[in-house]
């Protein structure tokens, strides 16, 4: 069983849906019904939030179990969500190009192994948007991670189910890879995992978006719309048109 398949039933306790994210996404989508694409949707909390606001949502994730959890949530509802399993590098083979907004948040794109793959994803995302469509990307601020040799992120705790989720970083300069180790402690068990992430810097993020055909790119330091600061912001939120 893969790591994400193992943690699917705990996902919403680890990463509860944030109001700031919903409000930010809703503002960028606009306040009339739009076609929205949630890429690397996890268990679909943001898809559900946007669907409740009247948007038609397509939600895609590589992990079958994550999509299964989302489908279980929307059974017997009137929410307009089409949830499917899919690879973000193959979305142009699954979907048509009619989206007003696409978003990929939660540090997902850095699971792609190189700049070339990330650039390819941006090109695919661009091809799926209509003429005025927007792409929103959110990742950890790797400028700050590398600048200060950050070793860990704050441990996530959920007292409701006595859950601890530790997040450890190890940057290997020679290979330009961040090894991301997670330790989930819950239900009297411990689940560990370590994966390589590509430390995409903010300047390179902008470069790849421009190369993919996006002309207007705005960077923020969080979903409240704070100014982005390479040395201080914990995350990078990019809005590209």
Question: Can you tell me about this structure?
Answer:
The chain has two domains: 3-140 and 200-240, Rossmann fold (3-Layer(aba) Sandwich); 143-197. The chain is α/β, with parallel strands linked by helices and 241 residues long. It is built from nine helices and eleven strands. The longest helix is centred in the middle third of the chain and has 14 residues, at 115-128. It is globular and about 40 Å long. β6 (152-158) and β7 (163-172) form a beta hairpin. A seven-stranded mixed β-sheet has the order 3-2-1-4-5-11-10, sandwiched between helices. A four-stranded antiparallel β-sheet has the order 6-7-8-9. α7 crosses α9. The N and C termini lie far apart (38 Å).
Summarize this entry quickly.
The protein has helices at residues 3-7, 11-14, 19-29, 45-52, 64-74, 91-94, 115-128, 142-147, 202-211; strands spanning 35-39, 56-61, 81-85, 99-104, 129-140, 152-158, 163-172, 177-186, 189-197, 217-220, 235-240. The chain is α/β, with parallel strands linked by helices and 241 residues long.
Count of folded domains:
2
The largest sheet has its strands arranged as: 3-2-1-4-5-11-10
* Largest sheet geometry: 7 strands, mixed
Task: Indicate the CATH class of the largest domain.
Answer: Alpha Beta
What is the percentage of strand-forming residues? 25-35%
End-to-end distance, in Å? 38 Å
Number of distinct helices:
9
Helix content: 25-40%
Keywords: Methyltransferase, Transferase
Organism: Alkalibaculum sporogenes
GO biological process, one term: methylation
Protein name: Methyltransferase domain-containing protein
